[in-house]
Amino acid sequence: MTSTAAAQPPAAPPPHRLRSILGGSAGNLVEWYDWYAYAVLASYLAPHYFPKGASQDISAWIVFAIGFFMRPIGGWLMGIYGDRRGRKAGLTLSVTLMCAGSLLIALTPSYSEIGVAATIALVAARLLQGLSLGGEYGASATYLSEMAGKKHRGFFSSFQYVTLISGQLVALVVLLVLQAVMTEADLKQWGWRIPFAVGGVLALGVFWLRRRLAETESFAKRDAGKQSSALALIRDHPREAAVVMLLTAGGTLAFYAYTIYPIAFLKKTAGFSDAAATQVNAAALFVFMAIQPLAGALSDRIGRKPLMIGFGIFGTLLSYPIFVAMEGARDAMTAFLLMTGALVIVTGYTSINAVVKAELFPAHIRTLGVALPYALANALFGGTAPSVALWFKHEGWERGFYWYVTAMIGVSLITYLRMRDTAKHSQILED
Predict the structure, then answer these.
(1) Residue 210 burial class via C-beta count within 10 angstroms: exposed 0-12, middle 13-18, buried 19 and up
(2) For residues 98 and 128, is the Cβ–Cβ distance under 8 A?
(3) Cα dihedral sign for 325, 334, 382, 416?
(4) Which range among 61-75, 78-92, 246-260, 292-306 shows the weakest confidence by mean pLDDT?
(5) According to the 3-state scheme, what is the secondary structure of the chain?
(6) Which of 82, 115, 173, 208 could form a disulfide with 367 if both were Cys (CB 3.0 to 4.6 A apart)?
(7) Most confident region among 6-20, 41-55, 67-81 by mean pLDDT
(8) How far is C-alpha 30 from the chain's CA centre?
């Protein structure tokens, strides 16, 4: 490959930055909506894809887990693709795979019609979505961080988690709307397909939008004589890859412990109804979403490291007391305040984790460096959080999970204390 930018797409001038950032963020929202739509609709689709007499709900959640273990593969393959072909190309391929997965779920006939082929199609759809999301994180984190500009990089990159949380909320709202306007029988029979069809159509719109995005200046100016590969990542950037895994371990575990697990926790441990637990979760997530840009903007003023250290210290000291207090919560407001407090703490990680990782790597290997170590840590610690928590509960030592979360945040805190502040030592060289 030649080392000049002559063959590369022109970089976006500053006036186009906001449009590019909004375009990248909108696609991220649709990707996460499609991913979480499966989670909120699992109990509805399970009878349509698995034989009667089987443990249909468990089977549906096993397929959900398969998607998580595809994310490191997606981070590896699509990280290399984004480094070699461009950030825009990576974003476009990512949403294409997600669209295909959603439409496959929406259109595949049920098990009663085509037998085991329905189950195979569902697994294939989740494999596609897992590959997509594994690549989406690295591509969007890199694109937003490179496109943002030096002075506002923390603020604009925080929109990755704004849109991630929005995807969760939109999937939940779509289900609530369908429950309100459809009979339960119709929703169980065919209405559950609507959210997947909507996600597929939205993904087609995002495909068109992302095709029109500008490429980043960092990609255009990268050292094209160096190839992105897993071997190059391990050989040339082992410390940075290890830092990404370690800083992610506690952060992603805390994120899933504070956002996904509380619904089950409030129902099974605190005794809340399904509706009350869902409402508390949704309200706290909305606040969590709203404060991401504020924390990102703060990192542009004081640096990334103080926010991560704040998360590490308060997460280590307060995770156990917060969970213990939530055990005794008997009203929605108390549960909401406790959950919101936990999410304010984890904001020190979520609001800036994308830009911190992007700032660790040079442009020619940045997408892979962000995506692969993150996906591995997420598969090991994030995606397993609810099942680990339920295992501790099943074994009669529920509070063991609280100590597990505390310990992993402590491991990440050590990493935060030892690493340099990426805002001051960034590998993203462009203004």
Answers:
(1) buried
(2) yes
(3) negative
(4) 61-75
(5) CCCCCCCCCCECCHHHHHHHHHHHHHHHHHHHHHHHHHHHHHHHHHHHHCCCCCCHHHHHHHHHHHHHHHHHHHHHHHHHHHHHHCHHHHHHHHHHHHHHHHHHHHHCCCHHHHCHHHHHHHHHHHHHHHHHHHHHHHHHHHHHHHHHCHHHHHHHHCHHHHHHHHHHHHHHHHHHHHHHHCCHHHHHHHHCHHHHHHHHHHHHHHHHHHHCCCECHHHHCCCCCCCCCHHHHHHHCHHHHHHHHHHHHHHHHHHHHHHCHHHHHHHHCCCCCHHHHHHHHHHHHHHHHHHHHHHHHHHHHHCCHHHHHHHHHHHHHHHHHHHHHHHCCCCHHHHHHHHHHHHHHHHHHHCCHHHHHHCCCCHHHHHHHHHHHHHHHHHHHHCCHHHHHHHHHHCCCCHHHHHHHHHHHHHHHHHHHHCCCCCCCCCCCCC
(6) 82
(7) 67-81
(8) 12
- Which phi-psi region, left, alpha or beta, contains residue 185 (left: φ > 0; alpha: ψ -120 to 50)? alpha
User: Quick check: 225 pLDDT over 70?
Assistant: yes
Average pLDDT over residues 100-118: 92
Quick check: 418 pLDDT over 50? yes
| Cβ neighbours for 316, distance < 8 A, ≥ 6 positions apart | 406, 409, 410, 413
Q: Tell me which amino acid residue 399 is.
A: R
Q: Which of 21-25, 111-115, 225-229 has the lowest mean pLDDT?
A: 21-25
Retrieve residue 177's tokens: 């709307």
pLDDT of 369 reads: 94
Sequence letter at residue 7: A
Q: Which has the closest alpha carbon to 386: 98, 135, 64?
A: 64
CA dihedral over 33, 352, 298, 14, signed as positive or negative: negative
Q: Could you tell me the two tokens for 108?
A: 């595949």
